[in-house]
Amino acid sequence: MSMFSRRAAARALVIAVPLALAAMPSALFAQSSTEAIRVTDAWLRETAPGQTAGGGFLTIANSGKVDDRLTGGGSPRAAQVQVHDMRMEGGVMRMRPLDSGLPLPVGRTATLKPGGLHLMLIGLKQPLKRGERVPVALTFARAGKVTVDFIVQPITHGTGGRHDHH
Amino acid sequence: MTTTDPLARPNPAPEPAPKAAAWLRRLRPWLWGATGLACLGLGALLAQHWLPAATSQSETAIGGQFSLVDRDGRIVTPQTLRGTPYAIFFGFTRCPDVCPTTLARLARLRGLMGPDGERLRIIFVSVDAAHDRPADVGAYVDLFGTPILGLTGSEQQIEEAARAFRVYYRNVSLPGGGDTIDHSAFVILMDRDGHFKSLLSDQDSEQQALAELRALIA
């Protein structure tokens, strides 16, 4: 397939997809979009009893043909799952939800890791214990719901140990 | 400026120059006076701004009376902490990132200090009076695998401690409901007599931080 025809095909898709969306059952759509969004290295930070929120980290690659956006998610273990950004301003930590979600342009990979972007599991129903697997249904603007098993890691995981580079 | 300026000669009215000079001469003491006053004022302002910071930051600006509660309900004050140098950090247990990262770093640094690390106390103060009970803070610090003293208190007690350590914190409502707390993210190092030693920031390299901690317990 030549470059030109591929681009033409992509253009046709851009027109066809929204049209098809209206008619397609949402389950089918979610299934087809999972191939476009690839999630790896998904982990949650363990929490203590009484701790009502926890952080989640992951790498998301958009290998699909349309720009997408991670808007949030849900989990049986939390009341809410939000996408947050953490910034240091003059020595003060400020954490805010990303109002319009995390942009995932075609071909890009987004890394949510300690020190910046993260998922925030709010209203934890019970502590996240290290070693357990917790399902989180991530919500994407285009790809719909993608359910991923997150592994609960020790609280010190990914915080700049000997093997991390700064 | 001089009155013998050759360019002034063709001027049909040469008087203004000497007149201006006379004016200036008469004004001169006043101008000097005003300049002097301005200097004094500026000096006073600068002194007010910089001197307290320069002379007392290392001694009195950080530190002061506070009274917090440990997991068992025991009161912790500067007096009860006397004798052991400590690294103190303020945060909250719902803090997903900077708090675990900072405490994990302190725990790791203490490990790198070897047996000397036992002479350093690590303290975590929750500023989240609404959510974190003393026992919650205790359970939270247990996750780090090294002894950390978890403290909190009533809103007034937390406010007092934050003021003593010059720590900023503010509860912020989030648009989608819920709330978070903006807070200072530096670690404060206090010596065994309860005097301020230095600050650790996440910008310090591990070597720098380690040197600071070693100097603290020396």
Q: What would you note in describing this structure?
A:
The complex is a heterodimer of chains A (166) and B (218). Chain A is of the alpha+beta class and 166 residues long. Helices cover 18% and strands 46% of the residues of chain A. Chain A has a seven-stranded mixed barrel with strand order 1-2-8-4-3-9-10. In chain A, strand 4 (78-89) and strand 5 form a beta hairpin. The model of chain A is unreliable at 19-33 (pLDDT under 50). Chain B has six helices and nine strands, in the order H-E-E-H-E-H-E-H-E-H-E-E-E-E-H. At the A-B interface, strand 2, strand 4, strand 5 and strand 8 of A face helix 3, helix 4 and strand 7 of B.
Question: Outline of this structure?
Answer:
Chain A is 18% helix and 46% strand.
Task: Give Rg of chain A in angstroms.
Answer: 18 Å
Main β-sheet of chain A: number of strands, strand sense, barrel status?
7 strands, mixed, barrel
Q: Roughly how much helix do the residues of chain A carry, as a percent range?
A: 10-25%
Largest sheet of chain A, order of strands side by side? 1-2-8-4-3-9-10
Category by helix and strand content of chain A? alpha+beta
Q: If you average the pLDDT of chain B, what whole number results?
A: 84
- The secondary-structure class of chain B comes to alpha/beta
Largest interface: A-B, 36 and 41 residues
Topology readout:
The complex is a heterodimer of chains A (166) and B (218).
Chain A (H helix, E strand, L loop, with lengths): L2 H21 L2 H9 L2 E9 L7 E10 L5 E8 L2 E12 L2 E6 L4 E3 L4 E4 L5 E7 L8 E8 L3 E10 L13
Parallel strand pairs in A: 1-10
Antiparallel strand pairs in A: 1-2, 2-7, 2-8, 3-4, 3-6, 3-9, 4-5, 4-8, 9-10
Chain B lengths: L15 H46 L6 E2 L5 E2 L1 H4 L4 E6 L6 H15 L8 E6 L7 H8 L7 E3 L3 H10 L4 E5 L5 E6 L2 E4 L5 E5 L5 H12 L1
Parallel strand pairs in B: 3-4, 4-5
Antiparallel strand pairs in B: 1-2, 3-8, 6-7, 8-9
